[in-house]
């Protein structure tokens, strides 16, 4: 087991480590340190348990940069910690929002197989990338996956959050069989401090479209407001800068 | 783009190459060379196309060993070729067969999402490994996945083949939305030479259980006879050694 900190570069692994059979986390680096570190380490350990891997022992170095992305990759052979700049597209989506398409992911919330790893943030991410490429081919930036029953699930790399009146909602991860979103959960925990009521709800696409505002929540983007859904433009919300500020994200830089 | 031949060892990759966003093939090395090389290279190229990757340019070295496993891994950054011994468990399953469990994979054959990569042999293999671990926890060796409609799909690392009378069958990959099995397709193409009629059929678990013999077909195991299905023992078939011989596999060694 090796542990290395690098800025991008290359890593030495056995070829079998390229089969996606591990887990990872991506964290937002801030002057105060990696944001929501305990929560991300706890999810890394839960993901590992879902893949029948021992709990990882992560020791971060003291000299991390005060901005950028921190990635922790944990396979059956290695634990790798790397730092990279936040891609410009991520900052643009935080600032300008995303055009999203909703589509049937072919997954039933009631029939996840008993060996499902959907609740783990696994390294088997090819389908997530494929979903985003499909959205891009259809003139959008991102995708909102629906269950075969018509429920809103998640985006390929983000949780779905929405505001209706003063209720700030996300999808219940256990009931939906999706990855528990750390940024979304933290946002909901802070909602009362800005006069909003947090809630978890299973909703349909029609109900989502009727919400006042929709966001995709993830660690680097923070909140990316959905500016169009299935081609229908949506009015920008005054809540976006307010909630980004609440979470400590800058709308203009890293 | 680098290309290396090694016996196991380690490989230098960018950390993003650990996100399962690539494709691979595993071939059976024989004294005559890598078996069904053209077919595996064609599938590698088809898999790459499904992931919107350029067609790989694979040049194998001339000094490959005459037994073992050859693995070709192709990501957006690297093309890696490695050789390893065939695991003892693989040879044992070829010789002694496998106890299989059938289970709902939660996937509908009619509702694959438009971005599905199920027909590609992608590096995002964690769910396949998880399915086999689940089978092992339940006293079996392998798993036969069923669609939500009840159709037999595939095993996590193999195609399902069965014999009923003189009809040798497998699942139609396009209709089922599964990976096209190279070993299974080759076996069916050779069926007439031993007096069997090849066919592709969508069948239910009940129909599969009623077959005379069931095998899991893959490049290293060749054919692993299903010796029990969901706990019900099955009579060993005289066809297993005959078909292994037809395909050029030894029942006793590599």
TrEMBL record, chains A, B:
Q: Which UniProt keywords apply?
A: Lyase
Which GO terms of type biological process are on file? carboxylic acid biosynthetic process
Concerning InterPro entries, the annotation shows: Aminotrans_IV, Aminotransferase-like, BCAT-like_C, BCAT-like_N, Class-IV_PLP-Dep_Aminotrnsfr
Protein name as annotated? 4-amino-4-deoxychorismate lyase
Indicate yes or no for the key word Nucleotide-binding: no
> Which residue ranges traverse the bilayer?
none
Q: Which GO terms describe its molecular function?
A: lyase activity
- UniProt keyword annotation of Transcription regulation present: no
The entry sums up its family as follows:
Belongs to the class-IV pyridoxal-phosphate-dependent aminotransferase family.
Query: Which domain of life does the protein's organism represent?
Result: Bacteria
In Pfam terms, one family for this protein is: Aminotran_4
| GO annotations of cellular component type | cytosol
